Amino acid sequence: MIALLRTTSDHSDFQKLVVQLDAYLRVIDGEDHAFYSQFNKSNLLKNALIAYENKIPVGIGAYKEYDAETIEIKRMFTFPEQRGKGIAKTILTELENWAIEENYSIAILETGIELKNAISLYQKMGYQVIENYGQYIGVENSICMKKHL
């Protein structure tokens, strides 16, 4: 069974998984990693989740305010060996519920064009591809998505 902990990005288990996420993305992003990593600083996220299986952290996710009605999903990650168990779906659902509790009505996100499993998950969860926003405008390796909560 998966247990979720609402916390901040300062939590040591969150930070440990961020190290794993960044290592994973370094491989996926290749030479574009430096560009993306500047937007993935985790030290300021007050809405962070950690998923535990048997008290072991196996996944994370977070969001930050984009504007008064919109949150941006950040730092979604599940250990590769833990994928296919619904952990990411559980994390994303809880992030959306948390955002609704805080009176947000829209969620946006950016993911890499090579992250086919992530894109598939987001589409199954009701996210639709939109034009790239903010710092991702004109970035060919980015896909931006949006969902009304």
Describe the protein's architecture and organization.
The protein is an alpha+beta fold and 149 residues long. The chain contains four helices and seven strands; from the N terminus they run βααβββαβαββ.
First and last CA, distance:
26 Å
Percentage of residues assigned to helices = 25-40%
Low-confidence stretches: 33-39
Overall pLDDT score: 89
Number of helical segments with 4 or more residues: 4
Strand order of the largest sheet: 1-2-3-4-5-7-6
Shape: globular
Number of strands: 7
Largest sheet: 7 strands, mixed
Instruction: List SSEs in N-to-C order.
Output: EHHEEEHEHEE
Short description:
This protein is an alpha+beta fold and 149 residues long.
Task: State the main characteristics.
seven-stranded mixed sheet; alpha+beta; 149 residues; globular; 7 strands
Topology (elements, then pairings):
Layout: E1 2-7, H1 12-29, H2 33-37, E2 47-53, E3 56-67, E4 70-78, H3 87-101, E5 106-112, H4 116-124, E6 128-130, E7 142-148
Parallel strand pairs: 4-5
Antiparallel strand pairs: 1-2, 2-3, 3-4, 5-7, 6-7
